[in-house]
Amino acid sequence: MSRPQEPQRPLFPFGNPFRSISPKGSKLPQKLSLTLNDFEESLAGRLKALEPKVADDVLTFSWLTSAMNSLCETHKDVKNLISALELPVCDWEDKWIDVYLDISVKLLDICIAFSSELSRLNQGRLLVQCGLHNLESHSPKQYIRARSSLDGWRNQTTSKNPRMESCFSLLDSLMGSLDLPKVKNSSKGRVLMRAMYGVKVQTVFVCSVFHASLSGSTKNLVSINVANSFLWASTFTHLLTSVNSGIRSRLASGRAIVCKELEAVDVNIKELYPKDGVNPDSVDGT
Predict the structure, then answer these.
(1) Model pTM?
(2) What is the pLDDT of residues 262-272, one digit of tens each?
(3) Which domain of life is it from (predicted)?
(4) When comparing pLDDT for 254 and 18, which is higher?
(5) Domain coordinates in residue numbering, the chain
(6) 63 Cβ partners below 8 Å, 6+ apart?
(7) Is 244 left (phi over 0), alpha (psi -120 to 50) or beta?
């Protein structure tokens, strides 16, 4: 009499946390699997390129620009993947469309907030340029104008942008929506949801770093655990750890301004202001 076979032990003793993306027993057709692998490998390479050589190199406008460009490329990739899947919008389930629209609206609001802060920084740059121009003169009146411009810069760096404050709730909401809808009977749907998970993770990460660098707050730095089943998981985990530790270390040192370029401007202004000790009351006119 043959011995009864022992029941197969599950891979995840407490249940598969990623069953909503890849249900048990599902296997993607080869063409879809290759399409998904291409997307995930591209994402892994893109994340690898963002790894800073030095931890706080991330706190520069050049890194932030690279990170935002990288995110834009990932969004382009998912659009191309949707086209490659040949999955018409009319075949999308309502919950997929809701997820896509919800991400898009929140991301738009975050981008508006960032654009508002960059506009403020650009106004500050003009104030600094105006101040430096007036300092080239030997006229006390021009020195007073320079002091006024530099005062404007210093006031701006210490003030808060209400739109940036609104990013807190938006990023929290995006973090809370990382879980994707369950996909039962659509291989193409599973590929789409898995790819959208990668887009959402990179989006939340880049936006959180961007916000921390401009606001000087670590409140929205994210901590995301990505399963090893994703080809880009280890690269992302290493990048996340390196970037977050660099930002926290810099803020812990007592720096009020996180971004390196902004801090350099602020240090130089403090050194030359007031440059000559001119008393505005001793000069007639403006």
Answers:
(1) 0.77
(2) 878 877 777 77
(3) Eukaryota
(4) 254
(5) 31-275
(6) 50, 52, 57
(7) alpha
